[in-house]
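lol ok so funny story. i was supposed to be doing the assay writeup but got distracted and ended up predicting the structure for this chain instead. priorities right. anyway since i did it might as well share w the group, maybe its usefull for someone
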Amino acid sequence: MNRRSFIHATGLTAGGVLTGLPGMSAPTTTRLTILHTNDVHSRLDPFPMDGTRNAGLGGVAARAALIQRIRSQEEHVLLFDAGDIFQGTPYFNVFKGEPEMKAMRMMGYDAGVMGNHDFDAGIENFADKLYRFGKFEILMCNYGFEDTPMFNFYKPYKIYKKGNLRIGVTGVGIEMDALVPDALFGKTVYLDPVVRVNETADVLRRKHRCDLVVCISHLGDRYSDGKVSDEVLAKESHDIDIILGGHTHRFFDRPREYTNKSGKKVIVNQVGWGGLLVGRLDLEFTANGAKKLDKNQSSLIVKNIVE
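and the output, tada:
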């Protein structure tokens, strides 16, 4: 991504319809703001002032200020992370994830998923740091954690109530063979993400009557060899509205839009790596059940300047 398009990503807007009945209006609407990050990789400080493209950008202090500002402006906000919280700076090498988890708890993350690098100090370490310092939800529907230290520290899905809305959220992780040594993920069982997401989304949509179904994903956005990805997941799904992705470190200029097996639109977004951007999707729900993407914008994290 070149510098011009990278900066341009801070102010994109769009008015695409997600689902529902375009053109119909209702006396009242409910707004929902979804914020998301991915592949932060232990970047707690801004990038060093070394003259490179990212100099001075990122860092949890500026990110926290941005999130706080948005929460002061919007009534209904959710904050998610799509994995690879760990690995990439000496903070992780020395403290094994404690400051990363503390920072996410301070910023009020609602949920996240485990990326492949979140196993780098072992699954027991991740479970320990999450329990002691994180306190946010790990949502994974395609990892079987029954015989691992994560068994009591994850859920296959969760429903968030925002005003009169019910937001169902699940998550998926990438296959760890050839990415993570067996000893680090232990007895974690990888399950087909397409099958598991469709099963879980069906429960969220029909049993729990969710108004919106979101999948947080660390599969990667797309591959040339047919490997399961966010693109594949979107096209093969039935009830997912939004996929918040990670793993491939892509800076999307705007969310991608796919058509699922039911003929409905699925929005997929990803915001690079290193905590440089916070993704934002603003949705409006009308009283008749229609919902649309009001706008999207990815905010560049600038030290001491939150715009």
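The domain at 3-300 is CATH 3.60.21.10 (Purple Acid Phosphatase; chain A, domain 2). The chain has one domain: 3-300.
back to the writeup now i swear
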